[in-house]
Design brief:
Layout (H helix, E strand, L loop, with lengths): L7 H20 L9 E5 L6 E3 L15 E3 L5 E3 L8 H10 L5 E5 L2 H9 L8 H7 L5 E2 L7 H11 L4 E4 L4 E5 L2 H22 L12 H5 L1
Parallel strand pairs: 6-7
Antiparallel strand pairs: 1-2, 1-5, 2-3, 3-4, 5-8, 7-8
């Protein structure tokens, strides 16, 4: 049962930001149908706004957004929160830099996920947004706080990780940055896949990595 909606006015703009972000990733095919989920952190209250479980992105309204505290208690909202909410909360618990999260299901990224093959940083954008190679987390059922903590061990200081046989997750200093990172991971996956059809891709020399990661 949701608590009294005492934060509604304060969080309305953040709810609208989350809805706009969800519409964007859906429109460019990163979250087919009702797959995937997005969240962001309110910098003032520390509350987490997350998309509801199995709900069409093009139908989302402010009342559909679920507001959680870091323990996973529902503060606002009548819909069921995303089943990956505990994973998001694990990230917010351990990474102070994370203010937005996207769990997406891009086709080419999933290709590397089923191969259990990391995406090499062939493009400068991969280094800038992801901070290097996109690692792959070994397959495990998702949805639990422990899954999130195990995932963070694989991610290290990177901003994205592939879930083997199950999509990817990206974090950012804002929801917009997390979305940008998600797009860059999928572009990198497409580029890497196509390059492999023609030979062995040339990687960016390591002496430039620190400068690009910055």
């Amino acid at each position: 049962m949701a608590k009294s909606a005492v934060y509604t006015g304060e969080l309305l703009s953040l709810k609208q930001e989350l809805i706009a972000g969800a519409a964007l990733v859906a429109s460019i095919g990163l979250v087919p149908l009702t797959q995937g989920n997005l969240s962001l952190r309110d910098p003032d209250s520390g509350l987490i706004l997350v998309t509801p479980h199995d709900y069409p992105y093009d139908a989302l309204k402010a009342d559909d957004v679920v507001v959680l505290d870091l323990e996973g208690n529902v503060i606002e909202g009548t819909r069921e929160p995303s089943h990956e909410s505990q994973v998001h909360l694990a990230v917010y618990d351990r990474r102070e830099d994370a203010m937005g999260i996207v769990h997406a299901e891009p086709i080419y990224t999933n290709l590397f996920g089923v191969l259990h093959k990391p995406i090499a940083p062939l493009h400068v954008g991969t280094l800038i947004d992801v901070r290097g190679e996109v690692p792959v987390m070994p397959f495990a059922p998702s949805g639990s706080r422990q899954f999130g903590y195990d995932m963070l061990e694989v991610m290290g200081d990177k901003n994205a990780v592939i879930w083997a046989n199950h999509g990817m997750l990206a974090v950012g200093s804002s929801l917009g940055k997390a979305i940008h990172c998600t797009v860059m991971v999928e572009i990198s996956a497409q580029l890497y896949h196509m390059a492999l059809q023609h030979g062995e891709p040339h990687r960016i020399p390591e002496q430039y990595h620190d400068r690009l990661v910055g």
